[in-house]
Write a structure and sequence with these properties.
2 copies of one chain form a homodimer. Chain A has 494 residues and is an alpha/beta fold. Chain A has 3 domains: 84 residues, Winged helix-like DNA-binding domain superfamily/Winged helix DNA-binding domain (Arc Repressor Mutant, subunit A), CATH 1.10.10.10; 243 residues, Type I PLP-dependent aspartate aminotransferase-like (Major domain) (Aspartate Aminotransferase, domain 2, 3-Layer(aba) Sandwich); 105 residues, Aspartate Aminotransferase, domain 1. In chain A, 42% of the residues lie in helices and 13% in strands. In chain A, strands 3-10-9-8-7-4-5-6 form an 8-stranded mixed sheet, sandwiched between helices. In chain A, helix 6 crosses helix 14 and helix 15 runs parallel beside helix 17. The first copy, chain A, is elongated and about 95 Å long. At the A-B interface, helix 2, helix 4, helix 5, helix 6 and helix 7 of A face helix 2, helix 4, helix 5, helix 6 and helix 7 of B.
Chain lengths: 494, 494
């Protein structure tokens, strides 16, 4: 017999707020399923006839029939012509809890792998979601020609039709690889062919792929010191041990790298303007590094970040184009030169690394979205990319001058600005003995994002200060932010 | 003195086809740079005055000046007022080759890490770029409402403006997480909240993240046998050792899993319809598996692939919604239910895994493209997704019936079809003693893609045959392909 108390349970379960948006038959099915799983309705107990249950619940008989059919299909009830429906033999869970439970009450220790725990501990790479001064690495997006981009996208879809919806080459579309090869050869003095380009989602993915493909866990890698945190974390995640090489005004000290006693097979660097110091690697060091790589059959990972934005003269051509031995892996991205959410980066690879890197990429996430790739190819080939870069270079150059002036005017007792030749952020060195971390915390409370220079060192920091992003903020926005920082400084000096 | 022969070298270098599309000043700069790097122009040699060179090359003096400025900025030449320009001291590369070289002549052994070599050896996950029978796992894209999708995208951009261009939450936009939570709770009987969903690029990325975060290299993982190749390769790439558990008509043999002597902390499976057999995991086994996971503090990875497409009755609700202990990780994707190039997949995570998985994701590739996420959220919330799934379910159901009929009519001496209750592919068992591999090779030559069943076994295959994809192909396309296969079979039987 189906007891009155059981009917009440069904009615109560039906009212559960999580079911509110479900169709009626599904609310009934879920309520009955839950009562069976919880053992309130037990094996071999009869269920009321659908007509009777419909009447008590004041719903149509079809609704109950639909619920019963689904319960039957999923194995919760048995149905026999003539003798009605019964609860099936369903194994009881040892500790029945409400499935519609909220968070578990006691938070158990997280069971992660060692590498999973390592990633959690290093906190990953967190980009500012809403641009606010002075978060570095964020481009201005308010000037992007979005209507033009959308028009090109519509054209791409007219041209490619449903082909644009299918899987595309994991190496990237030919159209985009050709457009990039032409662009980097012309603008960066690279030596790229479409066959040697691999389209990715971001430069972070490029760095992660290099770490996996070129080195095993426990292997060493030469890095700049100080260096970009995202690369360092990617290397550590892959189990690599960074071997820090100092940086001076001409970039990484290639002489020290060459003298190193332990053999290391990969060096990762930012030659165009070193992150965070802004130093450009000298020609002599570039050629020395290339020769070292060839002699040691080592790889050079060249992260050419922000190289589109060079404000004083022409930017130095990239290492990759100087390297006749194909020992250099060039990394570029459009998440800064276009907009962060475009999710397109790329590598120019030595011929022998094209197949391994492409294969590895298919195992991680397949390929990059086709429509964005084709739209970007159009955007580059029709000259819009070049024009947009020229426009933004002027905007950013002005903002850099503004920021330098603001720091020199309002923060001169505290900070010495070191304006770089290019890029989207300016290092400023603390000259007042104040504590970097304290300033960062205080500024954060007031809505200002400061990145500490000392966090970028692998060894004991030789400088403290901040890396101030300027690209995404107008003159007015920076002025207001500098006033707030001034107050933070003076409050802490008091 | 600048010799006549040197001038001829400059002229020759200028004609290099790789420079054809460059502006004139850059052609001159590249030509001179190359001659300096190659040692044709040596340190301290004078360069001709810009006026003189302009005359010999028949270009304007400004053009030569621009080339000289760039050479100077990059460190290739010295300039002294009054005494002109000289080649700078530039380290010579030991083996000067033409930078504009083609592929290296001798292909050296590729220097990859052990894990890089492992990925290259397993050949990655290659999806059919142009759908052709009977490649599995490919959806029909020709019926997708592309104009509607583009209209929603324009609406998204009107609503979000430049916000849509910025970095977005690495966990995924709230809009899409909410839309997915509602959908999977309703349609898959899941128990999801937006806070426990992580938006990714594909289910491959989800599987790879699970492998990294939950287990270390050398750890064991329970898998189905036979199983999906993409998952197996992802596990092996992460250094895991698959422990194969047999599958019968009710899915994975949970009893055998529980009896296993070695403790294993993760099981990966496809309960909705097992890949490739199509078996649905019985309710009893689901509950047993959940209990096993809770008692052993183990994780269940539930790949709910293709569950949108169930043709006989309602699909069984997912394991995740039955699990009151939060031991289940649910993986879903839109690359099959919408279109492959959309690049959006997701996981429903136990609360304690949200932070670790999100952090790990930022280290791999940052986040998923914002505009596609927001467009998809609109598409789901406005009911278009549900409508499209219903439409495609009917299309695919008909195609499955067609394919079964074609196999039974034209290939009955060779193949026994095992029509599944859902999904996009049908297993067919070889009943004629012909060699699976030979048939696959022969069919491939004739443009037909056959996936062998034996390649999906971890242990010695207990069946040979093929997994025939049917979703992406019209009745006519399948008819033609079956005729070709028939010829392959009869030719090989002869």
């Amino acid at each position: 017999m189906f007891k009155h108390s059981q009917l009440e349970s069904v009615k109560a379960a039906l009212m559960h707020p999580d079911y509110a948006k479900y169709p009626l038959y599904l609310r009934i099915q879920r309520a009955l399923r839950q009562l069976i799983l919880d053992g309130v309705l037990q094996a071999n107990n009869p269920l009321p006839a659908s007509r009777a249950l419909a009447l008590s619940l004041n719903v149509s008989r079809d609704t109950v029939e639909n619920a019963y059919s689904l319960l039957h299909a999923e194995g919760y009830i048995e149905r026999q012509v003539g003798s009605g429906s019964f609860v099936a033999e369903v194994p009881q869970l040892q500790k029945p809890k409400r499935i519609i439970a909220t968070q578990p009450t006691k938070q158990p220790t997280i069971q992660l792998s060692k590498r999973g725990q390592g990633m959690l501990n290093n906190e990953g790479v967190r980009e500012a979601l809403t641009p606010h001064p002075f978060a570095p690495g964020i481009p201005e997006t308010r000037l992007f020609p979005l209507p033009l981009w959308l028009r090109l996208e519509r054209q791409v879809i007219r041209d490619y039709q449903f082909k644009a919806l299918q899987h595309s080459d994991p190496q990237g579309t030919k159209e985009l690889r050709s457009a990039i090869a032409h662009y980097v050869n012309l603008e960066r003095g690279a030596h790229a062919t479409p066959e040697r380009i691999l389209i990715l989602t971001s430069s972070q993915q490029a760095i992660a792929l290099c770490a996996l493909n070129l080195l095993d866990a426990g292997d060493r890698i030469f890095t700049e010191n100080p260096m970009y945190q995202g690369a360092r974390k990617a290397f550590e995640t892959a189990g690599l041990i960074p071997v820090p090489i100092p940086v001076d005004q001409h970039g990484i000290r290639v002489d020290l790298l060459k003298q190193h006693s332990t053999p290391v097979k990969v060096v990762s660097l930012t030659p165009s303007h070193q992150y965070p110091t802004g130093a450009t690697l000298s020609l002599e060091r570039r050629l020395e590094l290339i020769e070292w790589a060839e002699q040691n059959q080592a790889w050079i990972i060249e992260d050419d970040y922000d190289s589109e934005f060079h404000y004083v003269g022409k930017p130095t051509a990239c290492v990759q184009g100087l390297d006749p031995y194909q020992r250099t892996i060039y990394i570029g991205t459009f998440t800064k030169s276009l907009f962060p959410s475009v999710r397109i980066g790329y590598m120019i690879l030595p011929a022998q690394l094209v197949a391994p890197m492409t294969t590895a990429r298919t195992l991680q996430d397949g390929h990059t979205a086709t429509i964005s790739q084709l739209t970007l190819a159009c955007f580059i080939e029709n000259g819009h990319f070049g024009a947009y870069i020229r426009q933004m270079r002027q905007v950013y150059a002005k903002r850099l001058i503004t920021l330098e002036k603001l720091v020199r005017t309002h923060l001169k007792e505290f900070l010495e600005p070191l304006p770089p030749l290019g890029g989207m952020q300016m290092p400023c060195v603390l000259i007042c003995g104040l504590n970097e971390k304290v300033i960062i915390e205080d500024a954060k409370e007031k809505g200002i994002a400061l990145t500490g220079l000392s966090s970028l060192y692998i060894t004991t920091p030789t400088q403290t200060g901040f890396l101030l992003g300027f690209a995404a903020y107008t003159e007015r926005e920076m002025e207001l932010a500098i006033q707030i920082i001034r107050k933070v400084f003076t409050d802490n000096s008091g």
